[in-house]
Design brief:
With 424 residues, the protein is α+β, with helices and mostly antiparallel strands. Strand 6 and strand 7 form a beta hairpin. The protein is built from 17 helices and 15 strands.
Amino acid sequence: MKKRLISVMCLSIFAATLFAGCGSKDTSNKEGVTLKVLTHRTDIIDTTLKKIGDEYFEKTGVKVEWEGITDYEGVVKTRMNTDDYGDVLNVLPAITSTELSQFFEPLGTVDELKDYEGVTQRADGGKVYGLPNGLGATGIVYNKKVVAEAGYNEFPKTLDELYDLADKLAKMGGVVPLAINSKDKWPLGQYDSVASVAYGTPYYYRDMGKMDDALLAGKPTGDVLEILYKFVSSGWVEQDLTTTNWEQSKSDMANGKIAMMALGMWAVPQIQGLASNPEDIGIAPFPVNNSGKLKAEAGPDQFLAVSAHSKHKEEAIDFVKFYTTSGYADSEGLIPAKKGQESKNPVVKGYQDSGVELLLADPSEADPAASDKTTEIANNAGFKFWEGSYIQEAVIAAKKSRADFEAVVKKYNDAWNKSKAAAN
C-alpha cells in the first residue's frame, strides 16, 4: 500500500521533467510559456519539485506550475473526461495501450526512445506515450553495519552464503537475521516476487498456469518455500511468528536489532528515516541459488506523459525528458530509467554495482489471459498470490516440524493440481 502511494506520487512529478533533458532549447522561443504539471507529490512540491522546476526555467525560460492533487487517480480520471488535465501528468494504470493516443501526445518512436527502460509498456503502434520516472526493484533490505559485524562487508551473492550469514548473525545474539513479519501477512507476499527471480524471467506468472506440482521443490514457488523453511527451522527469523509487527520491524532494523527483510526499494527511505545513520541501510538482490548470477524483478515506478490537449506540446515533451535525467530518481531511491545513467544515490548505485540483471517485462511477451488463468487456478485452489496467507500457513507449520510443513505444502499443491486440471 505504501509502495503504491509512493508510486502514484512519484508519477506526476516525473511527468513534468521527464522530457526536458533530451534537448536543449532556445529560451527565446519559450519565454512566457508556463507548463502545468499534475502531481500527487504534495509532500515535495516546495522542495524537490520546486528545484526541478527552477532548474528547467533557468535552462529554457519555461515556467513550471505544479498542481498538487491528493486523490490523484480519482481526480485525474474525472478531469480526463475534459480537455483540462494539465500539460504533463502520469499515465493512469487503468488506461490501455489502445487508449493512449486518445489522451496523450506521442513522445517519439520506440526506436528513438530505446535508451529508456520499459518504454514498450506505454507504447502503441510503434509510438511511445509515456516515459518512466525511474525503476523500482526488489531484493533484501539490510543493515550494513550489522551484516559487516557478521563478517560480510559485501552482501552474499549465493544462497549458501546467505545461509552462512544468517547463521553467523544468529550466533552473534540480539539480532534477528531475517524478519519475515508473519503476523502482518502482506510482507510474506514479497516472496511471491522472489519466485519470479527463481524462475529467471519476468514471465513466471504467465507460465505458472501450465505447471504441475507448482508448489513442490524444483519449481520456483516450491523452491522459495524451501528457502523459508530453512530460515524458520534454523531459528533465523523472529522467535514468535504470531506477534510480529511491521512498523516495529522498520524501527528494529534501523536500530540494528533486525539484519534483513525481503522488500523492495520503496522501503529503504522509510527505514533510513528511522536510523541514526541512514547510510547503514541498503538493499541487495536476493540470491535465490548458488550460481552467483544475480537477478531481480524490476519495473517502472510510473510513466510520465504529455496531454493531447496541451497548447505547449514541444515544451512539455522537452520537460518530461529533462525530468527523467534530473535528480528525482536519486532523491526517491529509484534506478534511473535512462540506460547508462549512473545513480548518484549510494544505495541504488550499490545495488547496480552488484551486477544484477533486472527482469523487465516486455508487453509483446506478456499474455494477460495466461496470467489471469494462473490467478484463477490459485484462487480456486484456496490461495492468492501477493497476499501472504498460504505462505503464512507454511512458515507457521515449519516452526513446528518438517512433517507439518510438508503437510501444508502438499495440501496446497494437491489443490493446485486439481484446480489446474479443472481449468483445462
